[in-house]
Amino acid sequence: MQLFDLHCDTIYESLVKGTDIDNSSFHITPYKARNIAPYIQCYAICVPEEISGDKATDMFIKAYHRLVEQSRKFNIKVIKSSADLNKVIKNNEKGAIFTVENASVLAGKLSNIELFKEFGVKFVTLTWNGRNELGAGAMVSHSNGITKFGIDVIKELEKNRITVDVSHASDRLFYDVINHSSRPIVATHSNSRAITNVKRNLTDDQFKAIVRREGIVGLNLHKTFLNNDEDKANRYDILNHAEHFLSLGGENSLSIGADFDGCVLPDDIKGIDTMCEIYELFLKENYKETLVKKIFFENARKFCENFDK
Prior knowledge:
alpha/beta, globular, TIM Barrel, about 40% helix, six-stranded parallel beta sheet, about 300 residues
């Protein structure tokens, strides 16, 4: 099976726990992913909201160096360009893309986007669930949307061909991003709010706005986002969210953003080694294989081939 996963927190967990990524307790390890090739994994550094300023930037830098170190150790290719991506796919290898979850890592300094460019960052969420220098996240009760600094960050990110990720954005921040951006946007790990009514999921209008922008959306496996009764969440819920998004015109936009090592999984999903079974579940439920390949690999690949354009 081929897999392109838009979001995990494995490198963050490796950093804070001080262990290699082959830690058997992680949802993703090189061994668990042994049967997937090519396999492109986006590794996010998620900076906790209690860490800000230069400390947040320092954590971001340490996470990048941890990713480089671990990639060398476990024969994973760090991808910084379209050419890197195409080479990994051609050679049937495993690749890592560095991403940012919570742009508080900028410490309020636009100049730190130079670090994003240097480290090959490709996706950036402006916030996590709370409020920072750029705006308000999904769990802020009375969102004031985006700040002036947030608008400046969007323009600078787009100038450097770094994609804005609206996962974790409040509804108001989402539409501010739409209004102040001109390039495609993504929601790397968000499901359908029509299926599971939580603020972290996308409304139908938001999903269609991403599709109109020729962006992509990654299906999240966190049980709270899969089912209104999280204790009943299971792998079949993934099909419900996929089917709804497809009904909104998402055939070329729907992808995987599993949120491994940053989520609580349903009992019947163990980690990356379950993805082959989920792939087969789609086929069993009469999805055409061409469509399943799009969801699990091709849509994200085609989007990311435009990194440098």
